[in-house]
């Protein structure tokens, strides 16, 4: 079913502090060579004083500015995150406060781990079909450095901090909004409250290769499109090798996949909107893109929209 949306603006925020692979060599038994060859990551960002909601707000502010829209037009705020600084108020409530929103606004957070943004976008796209809502802010924001065990080389090399945001409104019948979001229960990859991320990397890796291709094909089928109808695929940035393996299996050029993992690592729910925002800085004209995400839960999903 089509849930047509227009993406009016995109924005992102990353902290200034850069943590290189060489910095991590000083903390755990690892090497720049191992990290680059196994993941494609060269460096990642780490917050100094920023909170998740401050980064979410700063990304939103940029998205609103690019869309040339005032916060008074926003009726829905959805934030995808697994690293809120407090359980309640939601990060979305903080964003509403920081944007000084005084009118009715529906604001809430979504936890679908690294697939969070794709889930949140489907939710917002469904809601925005109702005439009572004008525009929605959909955000992915994470401070993963707060939940990393810097003595565990299996996890601390992978993740980074950042935020990305989009402003959407209901589209017309010519616009696209196709979604496929689902999950398959898995309890091995966890982030218990007050502790650190624990992960079976190999298991996630094998799961991802399988579901990324499946999700891409499923959403294309639902939209009655082929891969050639898509300008670019913006995948969740977890591991370059996962995407290379999918590209090979699908016989699709790596040029079709937009990658920035080398600079930011895995920023979980922020990775797709952050990559999209950078993509839109380079591509001002309208593009047809496919998002594909996967992560803890296990959750996975894909979307096709014009941006
Ligand atoms: O967004 C979803 C969140 N999770 C993910 O995206 C994770 C997906 N998985 C991955 O990206 C990969 O599985 C990893 C990058 C985590 C690991 O790569 P791998 O090729 O699957 O390596 P592995 O876990 O099979 O480990 C290979 C070797 C092991 O040593 P032995 O047992 O062969 O002697 C590890 O102990 O590499 C070792 N190793 C490391 N060596 C240097 C594991 N981590 C490191 C490290 N530096 N940081």
Report the top-level CATH class: Alpha Beta
Any idea of the CATH topology?
Peroxisomal Thiolase, Chain A, domain 1
Query: H/E order of the elements?
Result: EEHHEHEHEHEEEEEHEHHHEE
Bound molecules: oxa(dethia)-CoA
Compact overview of the structure:
With 307 residues, the chain is of the alpha/beta class. It is built from 9 helices and 13 strands.
Give structural notes.
It is a single chain. The protein has 307 residues and is of the alpha/beta class. The model has no long low-confidence stretch (mean pLDDT 97). It has helices at residues 21-25, 32-39, 52-67, 91-98, 116-127, 201-223, 240-250, 261-264, 271-282, and strands spanning 5-13, 18-20, 43-45, 74-80, 106-110, 135-143, 161-170, 177-183, 190-191, 197-198, 232-235, 288-295, 299-306. The two termini are 19 Å apart. Strands 1-7-6-4-5 form a five-stranded mixed sheet, with helices on both faces. A four-stranded mixed sheet has the order 8-13-12-11, sandwiched between helices. It contains nine helices and 13 strands. The site of oxa(dethia)-CoA has 17 residues, from helix 2 and helix 6.
Quickly list its features.
five-stranded mixed beta sheet; 307 residues; four-stranded mixed beta sheet; binds oxa(dethia)-CoA; 13 strands; alpha/beta; 25% strand; globular; Peroxisomal Thiolase, Chain A, domain 1
């Amino acid at each position: 079913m089509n849930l047509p949306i227009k993406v009016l603006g995109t924005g992102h925020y990353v902290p200034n502090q850069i943590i290189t692979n060489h910095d991590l060599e000083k903390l755990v038994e690892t090497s720049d060579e191992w990290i680059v060859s196994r993941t494609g990551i060269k460096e990642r960002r780490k917050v100094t004083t920023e909170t998740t909601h401050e980064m979410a707000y700063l990304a939103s502010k940029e998205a609103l500015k690019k869309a040339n829209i005032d916060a008074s037009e926003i009726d829905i705020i959805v934030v995808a995150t697994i690293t809120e600084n407090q359980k309640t108020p939601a990060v979305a409530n903080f964003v509403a406060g920081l944007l000084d929103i005084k009118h009715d606004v529906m604001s809430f957070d979504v936890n679908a781990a690294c697939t969070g943004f794709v889930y949140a976008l489907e939710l917002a796209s469904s809601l925005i079909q109702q005439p009572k809502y004008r525009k929605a802010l959909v955000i992915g924001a994470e401070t993963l450095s707060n939940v990393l065990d810097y003595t565990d080389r299996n996890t601390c090399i992978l993740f980074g901090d950042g935020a990305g945001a989009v402003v959407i409104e209901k589209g017309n019948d010519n616009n696209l909004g196709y979604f496929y979001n689902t999950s398959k229960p898995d309890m091995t990859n966890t982030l218990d409250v007050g502790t650190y991320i624990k992960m079976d990397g190999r298991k996630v890796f094998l799961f991802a290769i399988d579901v990324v291709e499946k999700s891409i094909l499923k959403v294309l089928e639902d939209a009655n499109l082929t891969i050639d109808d898509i300008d670019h695929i913006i995948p969740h940035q977890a591991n370059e090798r996962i995407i290379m393996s999918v590209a090979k299996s699908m016989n699709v050029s790596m040029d079709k996949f937009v990658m920035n993992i080398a600079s930011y690592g895995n920023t979980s729910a922020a990775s797709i909107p952050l990559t999209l925002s950078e993509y839109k800085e380079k591509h001002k004209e309208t593009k047809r893109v496919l998002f594909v995400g996967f992560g803890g839960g296990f959750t996975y999903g894909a979307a096709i929209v014009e941006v």
